[in-house]
Amino acid sequence: MKYTSEKELLEDFLKGEEQACAQVYNRYFSRICLYASSFVDETKEAEDIAEEGFIRLWQGKRNFESLAHLKAALYQTTRRVGLNHQTARQRRVNRVDVYAAQQHQDQNSHLQEIVYAEAMAELYDAVQKLPPKAREIIQLTYLEGNSNQEVADLLNINIQTVKNQKMRALSLLRQYLTRDSFNYLLSLIVLFGKF
Q1: pLDDT tens for residues 127-181?
Q2: In the list 64, 104, 126, 129, which could disulfide-bond 69, CB 3.0-4.6 Å?
Q3: How far, in Å, CA of 121 to CA of 124, rounded?
Q4: What are the backbone dihedrals phi and psi of residue 65, each rounded to the nearest 5 degrees, phi first?
Q5: Of the residues 77, 93, 109, which one is the last residue of a structural domain?
Q6: Residue 41 domain-assigned?
Q7: Cα distance between residue 70 and residue 162, in whole Å
Q8: 80 and 134 share a domain?
Q9: Residue 114 domain-assigned?
Q10: pLDDT digits (tens, 9 = 90+) for 103-137
Q11: Could you list the residue range(s) of the whole structural domain that residue 159 is in?
């Protein structure tokens, strides 16, 4: 049915006549899509927002004074749908960003743990190659966390002997380890006083 008067179209729309709804849809859809495109980048998304605006208007209370009032309500409904769409999209983006950051952090943490395990294995192997006295001092100081004075007291030797043995051990470890592993060892010594 083709409506010739706006009054008749509005009356049938208010009664819930599907033909009236279809005519209102056909009359305003393109401009509502254009308006909806201000909320999204894709034409298909704008069409979806416009359609949802029409559906909500149709399903809501239909008490409009004129087609201009109906059109204004349609714009308002479409605006709410568009804003809800933007909010939902931003939440998805935020969740994805948080997830990606967490995955990146987890991956970095995982990789750091692997690097640490490999470097420590190489360090322990190198420590085993040290002469017995140097190995013992390295184990007592760096592995067990004793101070130079405590090691000197435990072994009944001079504190300067402990320091000399540590320097000798570090010099030998430099030969036994790759450059990266030795630098890692030094960073652990500087940061934590042990490895």
Answers
A1: 899 999 988 988 888 778 788 899 999 999 999 999 999 889 888 888 888 887 7
A2: 64
A3: 5
A4: -80, -25
A5: 93
A6: yes
A7: 91
A8: no
A9: no
A10: 767 676 777 777 777 877 888 888 899 999 988 98
A11: 129-192
